Amino acid sequence: MAFHFSLQELLTFDHPAVLMNFSLSQKVALVTGSSRGLGRGVALSLGKAGAKVVLNYLNDRESAERTLTELRDQNVNAMLVRADASDPEQVSAMVVAVEEKFGSLDILVPNATPDQPQKPIEEYDADFYRQMYEFFVLSPYHLARAVLPGMKERKWGRIINITSEVFHCGVPEFSAYVAAKGGQIGWSRSMANELAPFGITVNTVAPGWIPTERHANDPQEALDAYFETIPMIRWGTPKDVGDSVTFFASEEAAFLTGQTLCVNGGRTPW
Q1: 177 is annotated as an active-site residue
Q2: What does CATH list as the number for 7-13+24-263?
Q3: Catalytic choice (124, 129, 177, 226)
């Protein structure tokens, strides 16, 4: 039996009879690219667990303000910062602003992403490859450099990179994105070992294809073909990703580091 939902239903889906008891009270979380889509789902889950939430956006202020209102309506202490997550100066200024307002920054979730066109290698140019590297390797690097002094001083921190199943699946005609996501996972594993002595964990959450606003115009035949490959016979939701991030951010995951959690309904069972 297949379960099909509208895009709006997927974006607002809340699993019944599931209690999430992870407490992030007094923790401060920054989620880049969190005005909508997966980033919004992550922000809502972290806020539900009690974290103070910093939303970051670059272009879509209307969506960012809507998500900010949604968090505040749920009594989440939240703030909104406009910054390019791939620009080191803007990243540094954003982290300073967060620490001035909340006193610390405990949980970092690099999630911001550019468009990812799927096409053969002959149609990519080197500049696009560089853009992928800047977003998925250099951006986490700049963000980590900015937040690590405070995390090391407090001997507590969580860095949770949002990667993708595409690296595990080796998706064809996606070479720039796959290579950059592989680099992001490798960077996270190295940083996990480097930062473990400081009480800082570094993990990654790798979603499958989860329909969000950016997929509103994707061909229905492509959606149907992918859906048929999901063993759990339902679409993933931003909440699925958000709850996975919240687990990695929690004390219950304190002894987990350098791990990748694929949130894709069983498409990569290894």
Answers
A1: yes
A2: 3.40.50.720
A3: 177
